[in-house]
Design goal:
The protein has 764 residues and is of the alpha/beta class. It is 32% helix and 16% strand.
Length: 764
């Protein structure tokens, strides 16, 4: 009986393999089939192995710890080696000294640029400019590939509504529609589009992450448990991953968290049923760093057990754990099948084939490219432009901004004169000494027309240990070299500021105050910086808060008291010059928030596309007993999703609909006329929101369904139109069917999610 069952499983796996092969390029399929027929079990398992490279130096790869494994065919790829010469040394071992000469794939965390660094992903999202997002990924791919990298662990598309989570900085915010558009743009930028993907030696393979739901960890704590209904998963969290698949992403990274009580890395429903069968993904799946071995701590088995579960779930490559190397034992014990191992191996080999590594193992290893195509003036100019487009003007009372290029400008704060923090978290390839500081950027843009003076004013935070944790990886603020007391630093800042015409306070988070394993319970500006800001305001001079952040920050006091607030996120290697461009008005700010800003941390999670309760609070009210509200603060955000000011103003006409009803095969157009009513040319992000008023399940109060960034000269008007089809109105119902339902809908258009003009239509 047991033998019959084994035979049945074997033929079932063969059927899966044959079905899988039918979808493939016949030439690729034959090549890989022929290759796999020559491979031993050990060599097949080797392709599933992605160990850490360790410290491999140029010319010493052959004597490194990893070299012997490569020679034996026990390694499929390596990651985070920097430098084309080092990579050439390692690849030479693989293709000249191993039995089958299978090339390695080389990956790196190229998250928002390589040596030319763009704004952190949350800042890129704030541009709402998909052409700019794609261009940033394209330049990142050019530079990374010129240095030997063929695979990036990006884009990170996890939706998050909890600003305590450190990796909020690495995603695109709270909205799945915006997140999906960004996911596609990033994939296209890295890989190329459609059948042109990987054609050039400057196209690299993208890896969408972290699949799935990583941004919804309980308590905003990194790596933490996630628990939600499947209807919420699909309607609010899953689309950006699916969008990346639709764009042809070559690989997917499993998340650390559990989904439905099973760690994602061992979740067959997630990795096979949804990703492959429902969405049609045909690339390979890699774990996150030690994702397999961490399942032992999750409590679902020992290393051999969890490794077998990972394979059977649909994992193809194991980052660092080397757990899949236990599959030989599991195969002997009939815990996995040869067909399952072969399928995983095939997927990894296919990725190398698609990249062109079998045709030319040195495709991405060209020393001449490395000398000419990295950190070029042309790339830096684009990074400067995109950085300026990412900044969000949160407040500008009395037209404090733009500044005039005259007089004396005091630049004050612990983030005013640091180059190492400008690039932001997850900029692993950057030279931390290359970015200009805010002081240098303002002086350069003002030229000799204004005098820029500087004082540090305070430490990052009063707690020295906290500052140490928040300035890791070389992003130091040199607290250890500071011999002055807090009082002395404050006194110097006030003295410098009293002789200035205006004060620019560079405050907020350091680059490593957000990012992986950088969750916070207090998401405001740290204590000593706030004290500094209060004292600067007492001088009576105009104060501009240049806010560095990797997450939505609580700014209630600052919004009430500081005349002007410009959120600059972490703008990358060219951030300082871009900050100068915007502060002096050479560039009119156009960024819009990709996430809701709470009044205080107690409102979290707070997001615009929430649902009504059965006892919603009346519009315009703060508190009403027996309604869904707080005693001590209103339900309103400080700044709504999609919000951002400009140095000009824009007005919106009423919404015009081409029809007030459509049928299941029809469409209508919703239009507004947007007018630049100020005296300055500028860009506005026109946003379309829709509400399904009655559904078979409860529906959000509004959902982003379209946006367009338009540039208008002073006094100019433009009509912006959005096509609305039944496809745009679909959602997942109780049975997880993707459907639209007849009924009434609100359509809303405006400059943010709060301030909109609306109209109604009916779907028959």
């Amino acid at each position: 009986m047991k033998t019959l069952k084994t035979i049945a499983v074997f033929f079932m796996c063969l059927f899966v393999l044959s079905t899988y092969a039918q979808k493939k390029d016949p030439k690729m399929d034959k090549f890989i089939t022929d290759l796999m027929n020559k491979m031993t079990l050990e060599e097949k398992l080797g392709q599933l192995n992605l160990p850490s490279s360790g410290d491999i130096t140029t010319g010493q790869a052959k004597s490194s710890n990893i070299a012997e494994k490569i020679k034996k065919g026990q390694v499929g790829g390596l990651f985070n080696i920097k430098g084309v010469e080092k990579i050439r040394d390692v690849q030479r071992i693989a293709v000249e000294e191993s039995r089958l000469k299978i090339p390695l794939i080389f990956g790196m965390d190229v998250i928002h640029g390589y040596e030319t660094v763009f704004p952190i992903p949350l800042g890129l999202a704030a541009t709402w400019d998909m052409a700019a997002v794609e261009q940033s990924a394209r330049i990142a791919a050019v530079e990374a590939s010129a240095d030997g990298i063929s695979w990036t662990f990006s884009p990170m598309v996890d939706i998050s509504r909890d600003a305590r989570w450190g990796r909020f900085s690495e995603g695109s915010g709270e909205d799945p529609f915006l997140g999906g558009a960004i996911a596609k743009a990033m994939v296209y930028g890295y890989q190329g589009r459609g059948d042109q993907a990987y054609k050039l030696n400057s196209n690299i393979m993208a890896c969408v992450k972290h699949y799935a739901l990583y941004g919804a960890g309980e308590a905003g704590r990194d790596y933490n448990t996630v628990d939600m209904s499947r209807i919420r998963m699909f309607n609010e969290y899953m689309y950006p991953y699916q969008a990346a698949v639709e764009a042809g992403v070559g690989s997917v990274m499993a998340s650390f968290n559990e989904v439905d009580g099973v760690p994602a890395t061992a979740n067959k429903w997630l990795m096979t049923d949804v990703l492959r069968k429902q969405w049609g993904f045909d690339g390979f799946v890699v774990t996150d760093y030690t994702g397999i071995s961490e399942m032992v701590d999750h409590g679902i088995g020992d290393l051999q057990t969890v490794s077998a579960r990972a394979l059977k779930a649909g994992i193809d490559m194991d980052m660092v754990s080397e757990g899949l190397q236990t599959l030989g034992k599991s195969l002997k014990e009939n815990k996995v099948t040869q067909a399952e191992i072969d399928l995983a191996c095939r997927r990894v080999l296919e990725a190398k084939y698609k990249l062109g590594l079998f045709a030319d193992p040195y495709k991405y290893i060209d020393v001449n490219r490395a000398k000419k195509e990295i950190f070029t003036p042309e790339h830096r100019a684009v990074a400067r432009k995109i950085a300026s487009e990412s900044f969000v003007l949160l407040k500008n009372a009395n037209n404090t901004l733009p500044l005039k290029k005259q007089g004396t400008i005091a630049v004050v704060g612990p983030l005013a004169n640091t180059s190492s923090n400008m690039a932001g978290t997850w900029s692993v390839a950057v030279n931390l000494e290359k970015p200009a500081t805010v002081v240098e950027g303002l002086q350069a843009v003002a030229s000799n027309k204004a005098k820029v003076v500087y004082a540090k004013g305070s430490h990052l935070t009063k707690d020295a240990k906290l500052e140490e944790h928040a300035t890791m990886f070389g992003r130091t603020l040199n607290r250890d070299k500071e011999t002055r007391s807090d009082e002395e630093m404050l006194r110097e800042a006030l003295e410098v500021s009293r002789n200035a015409d205006v004060i620019v306070a560079a405050l907020g988070e350091s680059s490593e105050f957000s990012g992986e394993a950088s969750s916070r319970t207090d998401i405001g500006i740290p204590d000593v910086q706030k004290t500094l800001l209060k004292e600067l305001l007492k001088t009576g001079k105009p104060v501009v808060l240049v806010l560095f952040s990797g997450r939505p920050i609580t700014l209630t006091w600052e919004d009430e008291n500081v005349p002007a607030i410009l959120n600059v996120w972490f703008g990358g290697t060219e951030a300082a010059l871009a900050i100068g461009d915007v502060l002096f008005g050479d560039v009119n700010p156009s960024g819009k928030l990709p996430a809701t800003y709470p009044q205080n941390v107690g409102q979290i999670p707070l997001f615009y596309n929430h649902k009504n309760t059965g006892r919603p609070l009346g519009e315009g009210r703060w508190f009403e007993k027996f309604r869904s509200n707080y005693l001590d603060v209103s339900n309103d955000p400080l700044y709504p999703f999609g919000y951002g000011l400009s140095y000009t103003t824009f007005s919106y006409s009423d919404v015009k609909l081409s029809s007030t009803a459509i049928n299941s095969n029809g469409q209508l157009t919703a239009s507004v006329t947007v007018t630049n009513t100020g005296k300055t040319d500028g860009a506005e992000v026109v946003q379309l929101y829709i509400r399904d008023i009655v559904g078979s399940v409860t529906r959000p109060v509004k959902e982003l369904k379209g946006f367009e960034k338009v540039f208008l000269k002073a006094g100019e008007s433009k009509t912006v139109s959005f096509k609305i089809t039944p496809e745009l109105l679909k959602f997942y119902n109780y049975d997880l069917q993707y459907v639209f339902e007849p009924g009434d809908f609100d359509v809303m258009i405006g400059g943010n999610s709060r301030d909109v003009k609306s109209a109604k239509f009916t779907l028959n």
